[in-house]
Amino acid sequence: MIPELSRPSVYMRDPRRVEEIIKAMKQAGPSTMQVISDFDMTLTRFAYNGKRCPTCHNILENSKLISQECRDKLEDLLNTYYPIEIDSSRSVEEKLPLMVEWWTKAHDLLVQQKIRKDLLTLVVRESDAMLREGYRVFFDQLQEHSIPLLIFSAGVGDVLEEVIRQAGVFHPNVKIFSNYMDFDENGALRAFKGQLIHIYNKREGALLNSGHFQELKARHNVLLLGDSLGDLTMADGVYSMENILKIGYLNDKVQERKESYLNAYDIVLQQDETMDVANAILLYMTSSH
Ligand code: TMP
Ligand code: MG
């Protein structure tokens, strides 16, 4: 049906079920679909030529907007908390307060740096930010078929927007829920707006933004893309869901985490730096409509 699903990076616990969902969604057509995706390490690459690619936070951390002292502190936080984020031996309950701690400390450090709004464009341009291979086909295809794309990110909204704007794919069908910066009258960062989004409260975020899902009430079929088990709740605000196909990128700690990813995601993409599988599925679902 879709040759890309036979690639060596693709794992499925129940390929028959995947096939059924894809067929049901194709049958219902693009006007019933919405795509909900995580950003960091899902729409962006995990690694390129053996080197790790930056998250939104890393883009700021590696920039000249930040003092060396602050960079060192953010790096320490990353070294402390990232291993916890990906530790499959700890429960979500155990990790949750630690993730809140990470985000809170990181945001406090960023605020202390009084980051300037007018320099964000340059910082992103000079960064190593990289969307996954095939990103243009992904964004353009959704735009062409008027399928809404919700990007639901625990990263930094202002940085994320700039990455997709500079890539030329910030189309009108793209809507973003993320942590947005609040700038003072001089254009310097003074706080983050609204409720903090971290990797384990996307469900609450979805429910808080129920107005968005209300607008898309007729779209009962969801393609969900994520790289963390916390991303699975991003679609919890969707009204009367009919079908959901969940695609999960398994980037790191592959052997330890594979089983849990296979249990949670319909399709697991192991160390796959492309959007090819999602693109092929979307092409199939939207063809002859
Ligand atoms: P996501 O939900 O868009 O994937 O964003 C969350 C990622 O951001 C998560 O993988 C951890 C990462 N992160 C950093 O790299 N540095 C930080 O300081 C923080 C708070 C998060
Ligand atoms: Mg992510």
UniProtKB/TrEMBL annotation:
It is an enzyme of class 3 (hydrolase). It is found in: Cytoplasm. Its EC number is 3.1.3.5. GO terms for biological process: nucleotide metabolic process. The keyword Membrane does not apply. GO terms for molecular function: 5'-nucleotidase activity; magnesium ion binding; nucleotide binding. InterPro entries: HAD-like_sf, HAD_sf, Pyrimidine_nucleotidase_eu. The keyword Lyase does not apply. It comes from the Eukaryota. Its main location: cytoplasm. It catalyses: a ribonucleoside 5'-phosphate + H2O = a ribonucleoside + phosphate; N(7)-methyl-GMP + H2O = N(7)-methylguanosine + phosphate; CMP + H2O = cytidine + phosphate. Keywords: Cytoplasm, Hydrolase, Magnesium, Metal-binding, Nucleotide metabolism, Nucleotide-binding. GO terms for cellular component: cytoplasm. Monomer. PANTHER family: 5'-NUCLEOTIDASE, 7-METHYLGUANOSINE PHOSPHATE-SPECIFIC 5'-NUCLEOTIDASE. Belongs to the pyrimidine 5'-nucleotidase family. Specifically hydrolyzes 7-methylguanosine monophosphate (m(7)GMP) to 7-methylguanosine and inorganic phosphate. The specific activity for m(7)GMP may protect cells against undesired salvage of m(7)GMP and its incorporation into nucleic acids. Also has weak activity for CMP. UMP and purine nucleotides are poor substrates. This is 5'-nucleotidase.
